[in-house]
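Data availability excerpt. The first of two example chains:
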Amino acid sequence: MCLNWVYDEKISERVIRRADPCAFTKEDLMASMSVARKALGDLIKAFKPLADRVLVERFAAETKTKGGIMIPDKAQGKVLEATVLSTGPGGRDSKGNLIPMTVRAGDHVLLPEYGGTKVVVDEKEYHIFREADILGKFDQ
C-alpha cells in the first residue's frame, strides 16, 4: 500500500492519501504515532534476553552538583549504575545443565565502563550485558 502526502485544497491541510478514497488527517497520523510509541514501550517490557544476557537501564547522570553548579554534558561521564529490567534463563555448563542467573529484574547493579550492546527504543537508551560482565549488585 502506498501512502503519499498531498495538499487537499478543500480542507486546506496536508493529508496522507491511500489508493482508495480514504484519507488520514494530521490528527489521525499523530494518534497512530502515539499508539506506535506505546507499543515500543511495551516491546521493551516484553523483551526477554537469551541465555545469560541481562537488559538494563542506566541511571540518569547528575546534571547539577550538591552546591548547585550545572555540570556540562561532556563532563558528566558515563553512569556505571543501572536497574535490571529483565534477564535470560541463564547460561549452560559443559554438560548442558542450566546455570541460574544471580541477578533479577529490579536489581541495582554496577556495570563496566565499556562493553554491552546499546539498544535505543523511542529515544530511550537500554543496554544488554552478559551476566559475567556485570561487576556486582547492590543490596537493597
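And the second chain:
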Amino acid sequence: MELLTVEELSELLKVSRNQIVLMANRREIPALSVFGKLRFDANEIEEWLKHNRLYAKNETGQERNSR
C-alpha cells in the first residue's frame, strides 16, 4: 500500500493543500489518519478518480464513453 501525503496529493490533483484537507474533512475523498496526520491510499485515490470522472459530451449532447 502506497500512502500519499496531503502535499503529494495536492500536487497530483493540481489543487491546494487546503482544498485536500477540506475534502478529507468533509469525507469527499478517501483518507486515513495515521498518528494524527492525513494520508491517502494511492489505490483508493485512483478508484475515487475513476468513479468521479466527468465525460465530455458529443455534438448531440450525449456523453462520450472513453474506453
